[in-house]
Amino acid sequence: MMLEVNHLKTYFYSENGINKAVNDVSFSLKEGETLCIVGESGSGKSITSLSIMGLVDKPGVIEGGEIFLEGVNLLKMSEKELRGIRGSHVAMIFQEPMTSLNPTYTVGFQLDEVIKLHQPTLNKQERYSKVIEALELVGMPNAPEKYNEYPFKLSGGQRQRVMIAMAMACEPKLLIADEPTTALDVTIQAQVLELMNKLKREKGTSILFITHDLGVVAQMADHVVVMYKGVVVESASAKELFSDPRHPYTKALLGSIPTPGHAKRKSRLETVDESVNYLSFPKEIR
Ligand code: ADP
Ligand code: MG
Fold this sequence. Notes:
Blueprint: E1 3-14, E2 17-29, E3 34-38, H1 45-53, E4 60-69, E5 72-73, H2 79-88, E6 90-93, H3 107-118, H4 124-137, H5 143-147, H6 156-169, E7 174-178, H7 186-203, E8 206-211, H8 214-220, E9 223-228, E10 231-237, H9 238-243, H10 248-254, E11 284-285
Bound molecules: adenosine-5'-diphosphate and magnesium ion.
Magnesium ion is lined by residues 45-46, 95, 178.
C-alpha cells in the first residue's frame, strides 16, 4: 500500500469550541493508482492532505490516527525526517500557488534546483532543456522567456502551472494534488490532467487527487472517497461510485453532474440540500 490513513482526527480549537475538520477519516491508496477525495468546500479535504504532509498549523492539531507511507507511520516522524520525505518521495500541489513558490528566485532557477536534485547526472545544458520541456508540457507560453521571470510577474494560472511542473519534475512516488486545476482555463486543465495520467502510466506514480468536480473525478480516479463535514460517507471504486452510488450524499452530489445530451454543466456541487443532515445515514465503505 502506498498510503494508508487510519482514524485520522485533525481538530481546530477556538473560543467557540472545537471544529472537527477531519473526524475519524480512514482510506488507503494502492501503488500506481489515483484516489480522489471529493466533497463540497469545507468538508475537510485540504486539512486531510495537509495532515499527511505534516503541514497543519495552529490552531489545528492532529489529535489521533495513523498515516502510513509505504508502511512507515509519518505521525511518528521528526520534523527533519518529514522534510526529507517531502523533498524526495512526496510532492504536493497546493490550491494556492503563491504560497509554495519562492518569490526571490526566478522560475527557471527554482525548476533547475528540483531537476538538479532528482537527476544529478545531467549537465547544465541538459537541465535547461528539461526545464523548458517541463514548462512547455504544462502549456506555458514563451517558456524560454518565462525561465528568467520572477513568480510575481506571472498570472495566477501560470504560477499554478510552474508548481505543477515542479511537482512532476520531482518524479515523486506519491503526488498529492489539492484542486490543482481550479484556477486554470478548461483547455489547460484538460492538458494538466492528461499529464498527470501520463506520469501515473509511465512512472507508476500514485496520486491523491482532491477536487469538488465530479467530471474531474470521472477522468482521474481509480478509487473515490466522498467527504462530508469531516467524515468519509462513502468509499468505492470509481466504477461503483458512478454506476451505483449508495450514500444519499453521494447521490445528491451525482445529481449535479452533467448527463449526456445536457451541455450545461454544474461543476460546483451546489445542488446538495443544506437542510438534510447526511451524517444521520450509515456510511457506505466498499
Ligand atoms: P475543504 O478543503 O474540503 O474545502 P478544509 O479542509 O480547508 O475544507 O477545511 C475543513 C474545515 O477546517 C473547515 O470547517 C474550515 O473552516 C476549517 N479550517 C481550515 N483551516 C483552518 C484554520 N487555519 N483555522 C481554523 N479552521 C480551519
Ligand atoms: Mg480545500
